[in-house]
Amino acid sequence: MIRKLVLFFLLAAAAALFAQQPTGARGAVDGRLTWFDRQGKMVGTVGERGVYRTLSVSPDGKRVAAERTAPQTQNKDIWLFDAATGAATRFTSDPGWDAFPTWSPDGSRIVFTSNRSGVYNLYQKASSGAGNEELLYESTEGKGPNSWSPNGKFLIYYSLGQPTHLRLLAVDGPADRKPVPLVDPQFSSVTGKFSPDGRWIAYTSNESGKNEVSVRPFDAATGSAGSPVIVTSGGGRTPLWRGDGKELFYITQDGMATALEVKAGAAFQVGVPKPLFKVPAAVLFWDGDGTRFLMPVPDN
């Protein structure tokens, strides 16, 4: 009986630990960070070959922050790359797993998640690399940041593990402050992105019955989101905004990068989906401004 109880608690502890993992490194690609144009042509690479996963491009497009796995130690840290020259600088070096780098709207700071204290909490650091990492937000729930509001006051993150849930968090406040759900927790939701003007949030959820891209209006004055508008019909994930907010991009169920023209006035209207190019099969994470897109691409 005692042996069974010990085994039970060991299995429960293992399950709890697994639930805190960023989906078991799904989306990790052994290859190169590669730029694609709208036609799917490779137009450049960033940095050297490695194992990359989560990434984001700075607001001015001049730098890239990416999660990279060290070949010898298998430690997962964030590196910064010059988008033009590919010059690399190590941004974090803690033995924990550091991931989901997200730039502040002025490019001066980067927030990321790390399990250095056991739970995946949010940390921030100057993007210049100066100074130490500072704890931004902690809770008992693992979390991965997705987007920083243009006014600098809010973060969107999603809970790690399954199912995933989007939360809205005030940037300033005590480390244990409470986030606000963006989507009813009875549904799974992920990868929320503020529009360039901060008035809309695009994300993926199954609140319509299947995984689709939706948008919600966002009031930056009150920090509240309105009712959803579903903008895809055949499945979609990982939405991105064009730099001027006039297009949304997403990846379809069969891996096609797709564009939607956007008219966001009193109501949110989209045009006919326009397939752009097929993304590599292993890619889950990407970024870009609509003229070009960056993603890790497996070596041939």
Cα Rg: 19 Å
CATH superfamily membership: TolB, C-terminal domain
Whole-number tally of structural domains: 1
Which assembly state applies to the chains in this document?
Answer: single chain
CATH class: Mainly Beta
Give the helix tally.
1
- Widest β-sheet, arrangement of strands: 5-4-3-2-1-25-24
β-strand number: 25
Q: Classify the helix fraction into a percent range.
A: under 10%
Q: Low-confidence stretches at least 5 residues in length (pLDDT < 50)? A: 1-24
Overall structural class, as computed from helix and strand content, comes to mainly beta
What is the residue-averaged pLDDT? 90
Structural shape: globular
Tell me the span between the first and last alpha carbons: 53 Å
Q: How can the largest sheet be summarized?
A: 7 strands, antiparallel
Indicate the proportion of strand residues: over 45%
From the 3D coordinates, which CATH architecture would you assign?
6 Propeller
Instruction: Write the element-wise H/E pattern from the N-terminal end onward.
Output: HEEEEEEEEEEEEEEEEEEEEEEEEE
CATH topology: Neuraminidase
How is this fold's topology laid out?
Elements: H1 2-19, E1 29-37, E2 42-57, E3 63-69, E4 76-82, E5 88-90, E6 98-103, E7 109-114, E8 121-126, E9 134-137, E10 143-148, E11 154-159, E12 166-170, E13 180-181, E14 189-194, E15 200-205, E16 212-219, E17 224-225, E18 229-230, E19 237-241, E20 247-251, E21 256-264, E22 268-270, E23 274-278, E24 287-288, E25 292-298
Antiparallel strand pairs: 1-2, 1-25, 2-3, 3-4, 4-5, 6-7, 7-8, 8-9, 10-11, 11-12, 12-13, 14-15, 15-16, 16-17, 16-18, 19-20, 20-21, 21-22, 21-23, 24-25
